[in-house]
Amino acid sequence: MRIGHKALASLLFLCVLAANDESRQLQTGEAAEAERESESDVQELPGGLQLREALPEGGIPIRVIPDWDLFLGFEDRAKLIRGKLTLSMFYFPEALNYVSDPQKIVSVDNFGAGDRYLQGRVSLVDPASNKDGFATSNIYVGDFSQSQSNFDHSCYPFDDKKVRFEISIQKPGNYIFHLELMCPKERLSEMYLDEKNNSRVRKCTGEAAGSYVGFDWGNFSCERISQQVIMCSIVGTRQWESIFKGHIWPSFIFSAMGFLSFALSVKMSMPRVATTMLALVSLTSLRNSVMDKLPVSGNTSWLEEYFLVSMTFMLLNLCGHAFSFYLDGKGKTVAQKMVNKINFYGMITIAFFVSMARLHERNCPLVDRTLSIFLVVLGALLVIISFAVIGWIYRDARHEAVPILRSMLSFKSAKSTEFDA
């Protein structure tokens, strides 16, 4: 009997061990299967990193309403606009499972020097989905760089400028969240259908901003470029009237001074030269003040080119004075008067024609093509008429000019022969 009891106890012990082994194997298999399922749901990130929780289908949206609130300044030389931009945001509570403060991962990429103010969260309800959510905003006050924009100053001051604001999600948040553009009812919106046939905002356009910092600004418009990028822009037309009064009109006066010096008697050599030099120095000062406002690189602006043309003709005026004094010393009165008239009337019309032709060639947005063609044709006609009239009035001056040219050429030839010898 004792042997039978011992055998029965041993058999029961072996059965318990077998049951425990089967239980352990079953638990191990279930754990492994659960681990494989969890790994299949985990979002893979660059560098072998993984999220602790699986993402909802389609990712997590952050809805954005950009607003340009205030103009504080504009600098052509530094290629930046200064002002205040507000990003109003709305997101759902599940966003907090992946980042402690979702509003910090949304940024304006071209925001430079300045301050960013993060506002508090307000609990709201999304009426479309009847889900709770949070609303907040980021306020940017400072400089927004436009170095990546096509800031062409070739038509300055008859140009317009398109400033851009690139809104995006910073890494690694761009693997989790995506941006959705929202458009208030008072603004004009363009819609599209996503992959689930839900209506989404593609573009939102607000009202014209008004006249600030030397520009007439148009509509503030934002467009969804991709799931992680929203591009906002606003076009400003430069108010060229102030630049005309401050730089172009004074340059007309100084240039007129330089040309009017030929109206003085040839015997007044000192006042003639001094007037031209004063005009040249004044034009140089105006050009330097313009250059301080424009970028040091890029295409040459029309205004800078205009000053270079004016300064070049002041140099030609000095050469004209020297030649006029030379003819007067030789007693060639008729030829000297012809040179005076050419430098006064002829050079003015040539300078006008060259400046208008260069302006027409640039095809500036603020210059009407019909007007620019008219000015170019007018300049060409004035050049032809002025030289034709001067040539007719002083047609006898060729008898004085030809011997002078021959003597100058023979003098040059003699000097060349002497040098070769």
Structure description:
Helix 2 runs parallel beside helix 4 and helix 3 (269-291) runs antiparallel to helix 4 (302-329). The chain is 45% helix and 27% strand. The longest helix is centred in the N-terminal third of the chain and has 40 residues, at 2-41. It is of the alpha+beta class. Residues 1-20 and 22-43 have low confidence and may be disordered. The protein has seven helices and twelve strands. Strands 1, 2, 4, 5, 6 and 8 form a six-stranded mixed β-sheet that branches.
Structural features:
single chain, 421 residues, alpha+beta, Acetylcholine Binding Protein, Chain: A, Methane Monooxygenase Hydroxylase, Chain G, domain 1, six-stranded antiparallel sheet, 7 helices, rod-shaped
Would you identify the CATH H-level superfamily of the largest domain?
Neurotransmitter-gated ion-channel transmembrane domain
* Uncertain segments: 1-20, 22-43
State the name of the first-level CATH class of the largest domain. Mainly Alpha
How many domains comprise the coordinates?
3
Q: Compute the gyration radius: what is it?
A: 40 Å
CATH architecture of the largest domain: Up-down Bundle
What is the structural class? alpha+beta
| C-alpha geometry | rod-shaped
